[in-house]
Amino acid sequence: MRRITWILCLLLAACGSPEQPAVPAFTPPPPAPAPSGMSCQAQLAAAGAVFQPIKMSAAAQMSSPCTLEDGVKLTRTTVALSRPVEMTCPMALRLIRYETEVMQPTARRVFGQEIATINHAGAFNCRSMTGNGKRLSEHGHGRAFDIWGFVLKNGTKISVTNDWRGEDRKGAFLRDSSRRACTVFPVVLGPGSGYDHRDHLHFDIGRGTVCQP
Q1: Of 158, 74, 175, 174, which is closest to residue 116 (Cα–Cα)?
Q2: What is the pLDDT of residue 128?
Q3: Which of 117, 169, 127 is nearest to 148 (CA)?
Q4: H helices then E strands: how many in the chain?
Q5: Which helix (H) or strand (E) element contains residue 183?
């Protein structure tokens, strides 16, 4: 009996132990979607933005055609901002969607790293459209945002003015990310739309649909 047991042990050693299934690499779960019914500002906070609710004073509303409904003063979205900016909460949520769905994936593909800072020219600004003094700009309702550049995590600066037409990675990033921004914002304007936007990207959620980066 001992001889049979010894022979079985030798056979098992020669054949090896059954192959163990590979352990899959850990992948962090995606962020949980915001529960339905959450207010815009609750969704903004859940996305990690740093902001303060704001509103126009009653006197300003009475003397101005501009509005700022559900307004927020952002000091940070998913990345740093070159300075605080005022816009509507829905516009802020759309900006975060652009960052997560377009900006960062494009930066990782082109540069192998992410954007750390957005350099911008502001959002809410009670003024008429450039070249059309009779129609109020979407900036006058806090529904538009102008970006003139980005800063990578390694400190590299990207400028619409200097890099838009470049044949290097900076130019490729600006052109590709602005074209893809049309999947997030109904209005995207850039140097390709004319002289008025030669030095910045204009994103807005106002009326109409225009994709001219």
Answers
A1: 158
A2: 79
A3: 117
A4: 7, 11
A5: none
Three-class SS state of 60: helix
CA distance 12 to 9: 5
Residue listed under structure tokens 């590709």: 176
Residues of the chain with pLDDT under 50: 1-2, 4-34
H/E element, 162? helix 160-163
The pTM of the full predicted model, rounded to 2 decimals, is 0.80
CA distance 203 to 80: 18
Kindly state the helix (H) or strand (E) to which residue 133 belongs, with its residue range.
strand 132-136
| CA–CA dist 128, 91 (Å, integer) | 19
Half-sphere exposure of 22 (CA within 13 A, CB side): 3
CA atoms within 13 A on the CB side of 97: 17
Alpha helices in 21-85 (DSSP H): 40-46, 58-63
Mean per-residue pLDDT over the chain, rounded:
85
Start-to-end Cα distance in the chain: 83
**Rounded (5°) CA angle 206-212-213:** 105
Q: Which two tokens stand for residue 145?
A: 């945002």
Pairing of strands 210-212, 187-189: parallel
**119 DSSP β-pair partners:** 149
Bridge partners, residue 189, by sequence: 202, 212
Handedness of CA 105, 170, 197, 118 (dihedral sign): positive
68 three-state secondary structure: coil
